[in-house]
Amino acid sequence: MIVSRLTGVLGARVDGVVLSPDMDSGLVAELRSALVTHEVLVVPDQRLSPDEQAEFSHLLGSYSPVPFVQPVPEHPEVIKVVKEATEPEAFNFGGVWHSDFSFLDAPPAFTVLHALDVPDVGGDTVWASMTAAHDQLPEEMRQQFEAITCVHSASASYSPAQQSLHSGLSGMDIRTSESAEETREHPLLVTHPESGRRSLFFNGTYVRGLRGSGIGDGTDEGAHEERRLLTWLHEFSTHVRFTFRHRWSNGDVVLWDNRTTQHVALNDYAGQRRELNRTTVAGPEPAT
Ligand code: SIN
User: Could you identify the atom of ligand 1 that is nearest to the CA of residue 123?
Assistant: First the structure.
């Protein structure tokens, strides 16, 4: 297995490996270690059926439940991320900066995305490293952030008001629900359970509020500071200097660590089709 870094911050390409449910355990351990280190791994030229992708994902951990998005028929652990060429104006799935399902008690540790039919140009995905962002925080802010928790919810994406947006994608079955309003708090600064590295656990889509350190305490001043800090965190954490951008080819499998990254799928391929299969691997509750 050859691992080559793709930027000075995050992302690596892996060659010399065939991903499959029967992979040797030593190779899986190497892959996992590279994934935790580089945060995003690109493995070109793979051929995984939906079942094989689900079983391969089990080598990294158990299945992480997928709310709101209906799975591929007969493959309950796989969702299809698809926008048809005939849907040029449609919103695209994953088209805002986020970390997959961070609003769950235990958000997925890893996501595995397999490109089946991607545009000739456009439709890239961009990831930002939250470990790199954490390491660049001014010391005073880092100390303040230790006392802050983020209020996560799916409301901005999956509340019933968003149904018409999702219904514009004929190839995906996304069912919004009032349950999207439920909230969960996770620390703003977390420690990775495998690497021990600290990172921000923040994304502007699912983090709807902040608590602690006089923020979000019900006062006007607290509310103002909460809004200011939410904007600052979004702008800082998605700055280009923390990012890696991938241009997809059919057959690519990209794996990423949701605990230490955010990502966004670019919607710049009107008139072309884009189809990928996605699986997610369970993780523990985020902890400081
Ligand atoms: C996602 O957010 O999981 C989808 C990313 C993509 O389609 O590139």
Answer: 8
Q: Residue 81: name the closest of 234, 202, 254 by CA.
A: 254
Q: Which of 103, 113, 255, 277 to mutate to test the pocket of ligand 1 (most atoms within 8 A of CB)?
A: 113
The predicted model scores a pTM of 0.97
- Helix residue ranges, H only, the chain: 25-38, 50-58, 130-135, 139-145, 155-158, 163-167, 220-237
Could you give the CA distance from residue 165 to residue 275 in angstroms, rounded to a whole number?
18
What CATH topology corresponds to 2-279?
Double-stranded beta-helix (3.60.130)
What number of CA atoms fall less than 13 Å from residue 235's CA on the CB side?
6
CA-nearest residue for atom 3, ligand 1, is: 94
Closest CA to 64 of 256, 283, 254: 283
Question: 93: CA distance to ligand 1 center in Å?
Answer: 6
Contact 40, 244 (CB under 8 A): yes
CB-based contacts of 25, cutoff 8 Å, min separation 6: none
Q: Are 279 and 112 in contact (CB under 8 A)?
A: yes
Q: List pLDDT tens digits, range 108-154.
A: 999 999 999 999 999 999 999 999 999 999 999 999 999 999 999 99
